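Folded chain entry
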Amino acid sequence: MLTGTPDQHLYPSQQLALKIAHGTLKHDPAQAKIALLLDRLIDDVMAAAAPSLGAYLKALVTRRSSFADIKGLYIYGGVGRGKTMLMDMFFQALAARADTGASTPLVWRLHFHDFMVLAQDVIHAARNRNANDPIEEAAAVLAHRGKVVCFDEMEVRDIADAMILARLFGSMLRLGTIVLATSNRQVDDLYKNGLHRDRFLPFIELLKARCMICQLDDGTDWRGAMLAALPAWHCPVNAVSDAALDTAFETLVGHAEVSSDTVRVAGRDIVFDKVAGDVGYVSFASLCDVPLAARDYLAIAGRFAGLVMANIPRFTTANENAARRFMWLIDALYDRNRFLIASAEDKIESLYHGDQWHFEFSRTTSRLGEMTQRGHLHQ
């Protein structure tokens, strides 16, 4: 039984062709190649999931008789190449076919940063239950969430994540979890130059054994092209700038579903009311008039490719704390090469009128100027 809209049950290659036919995408040979691999992965998963004669015959043809026999995909490539879009197409198509009656769901999808937060929560819960091996128990719990897990923007930056991932994710793979991952890095460069990286290398080898490694070859940076055509700084704040931000958000997210999302940092939830894929639409007040710290903004930059932000005020002695948080946010976005489209009460060079951060804010001014130049904005 198929669920969802008619377009969603189409194979990724069919969804891609439909967008090209409607003029919302241009033909990209590298994307078309990856879409066909995703089509095949759907067939393999469905053959293993449905114990019917037809599925059995298909399994004989494809030589995929169980989930443990199926290799996932690790898709890497440059920014703006459409990796997230292709993953979304795969997820929608497989989820629409997921009414298998099995006790374990067929597929689940989340941003890699959100997976690491969830993993830490599940491990903590296992420790509270005095589990003999909290990580192994957490792996079993997470593996039961879905036979196929879709990770967007796989990236490993610190030793804590590397050590958790090596054991937890390794156990999930050995339990038969099928992985579809996207990353800006080729698999051998994960956690490159990281502390005690030798302990992480067996996980990389396991990932290579359980996934087909696929490069989304260089080509047009589609998101970069869109961003280059969108004005990035709108002032003053008024109905015109509000409409411009709405248009920018709609252009960037296309037909992606808009919903709320939560970024969790050290047990604290940061709620985003308007999110589509890896783009968040926020107000300045929701991120900078609340008591967040530098690590919170790093987590936000890890979750999103960029932000559309409304109503940045002028900074004076009355809102120095908010100015400091805004500086942390811009540093996090800039260092991760994220984009920002914003409305503000003044031009970038005239934004700060306070006393406390005058010297430090000059760097923020410089970074904002660089981020908002046409052609520089990219994921």
